[in-house]
Design brief:
single chain; alpha+beta; 4-stranded antiparallel beta sheet; globular
Length: 332
């Protein structure tokens, strides 16, 4: 999830574990601890485009890393607070602030290596990385927590915020199951034989859902709104094995292939080869000249070796995408 949401959740978690002992200092500790796992983004800035993406939500989001970090930060907090909190309480605060960060990330589409060093990334794909319907109730509850000094009242408000936000997460799981059923039903009616189906929400809502459907020869992409009145339309993109043979020797291609979990297309434009990650959809839906949200251009470096550079996205791309989503979610 976005940094602000993780800060809010970190504060709420710190308040539950240590609010009685630390009072409003939980806002500082919760904000810092709730941000720590995402510092891998900062580390990634000093790496190549591909390696920076590869480490995101890897070791920094793993339970093994948290078990290592918890006693170190717990002892540091005890020294800072000088008798206000014991080692056990400080360590529990650290552990749960870090762990709830990862649990929330599991609901998004990117995938999280919570069991690192295992390579598998867990992703429920029920919420977009920014979802105000989750964040706002929790944020409002923390405003009341900040204004009150009575521990019982503070705890009551933070529990209310967490109950509403967590209830919303549960609701998104149910809504996704309905969306998956609609895609499966339509695929059957249109006699489309497929190997794998993934369904995920579009930006800032849980009304319009995207689907990626893998077949032996290519992929179908589609979307479904709960306001739709017409059958789902599936757009087909064929795999290009000839182009893929050209990029197979490139090390960055092999890394991107693993990162994308096999959901990718190799395309060519103006004699340039591109790696397109299918998991995060399209900026436009022109099947002849598709523009994917995450694309990488293969270029030659100073040593004559081919590397992958992420294609930058412009502000107008984002505005056009949001406009398209808003129009589409109203129904077909």
């Amino acid at each position: 999830m976005d940094s602000f949401t993780q800060i809010v959740l970190g504060i709420a978690t710190a308040e539950i574990v240590a609010g009685k002992k630390l009072q409003n200092k939980t806002f500082w500790y919760g904000a810092i601890l709730g941000t720590i796992p995402d510092l891998d983004i900062v580390v990634g800035k000093f790496m190549s485009n591909v390696d920076g993406v590869a480490i995101h939500r890897g070791i920094s989001h793993s339970l093994l890393f948290f078990l290592f970090l918890t006693p170190l930060l717990g002892r540091l907090i005890v020294k800072i607070e000088r008798g206000k909190i014991d080692f056990k309480s400080a360590s529990w605060m650290v552990f749960w602030c870090l762990t709830t960060h990862v649990f929330l990330d599991l609901f998004t589409s990117w995938g999280t290596q919570i069991l690192w060093p295992l390579h598998y990334r867990f992703a429920l794909k029920t919420v977009f990385v920014i979802d105000p319907l989750y964040t706002i109730p929790l944020f409002i509850s923390l405003i009341y927590v900040w204004k009150n000094k009575e521990h019982f009242i503070r705890k009551k408000y933070v529990y209310k915020g967490l109950l509403i936000s967590s209830g919303y997460l549960l609701l998104t799981c149910i809504v996704k199951l309905v969306a998956v059923h609609q895609f499966e039903k339509e695929l059957k009616q249109q006699n489309i034989v497929y190997q794998e189906l993934i369904v995920k929400p579009t930006a800032f809502n849980t009304i319009l859902w995207n689907a990626n459907i893998a077949t032996t020869e290519g992929y179908f992409l589609a979307d479904y709104s709960f306001f739709d009145t017409q059958p789902i339309s599936f757009t087909y993109y064929a795999k290009n094995n000839v182009l893929e043979e050209k990029v197979k020797p490139i090390e960055d291609f092999q890394k991107l292939k693993q990162i994308s979990e096999g959901w990718y297309l190799i395309t060519e434009s103006n004699h340039n080869l591109y790696f397109n990650d299918l998991r995060f959809g399209l900026l436009n839906n022109n099947p002849e000249h598709p523009q994917f949200a995450f694309s990488y251009l293969f270029v030659s470096d100073n040593n004559g070796q081919f590397i992958a550079k992420e294609v930058p996205k412009e502000k107008r791309d984002g505005k056009a995408l949001l406009k398209k989503i808003f129009t589409r979610l109203k129904g077909n």
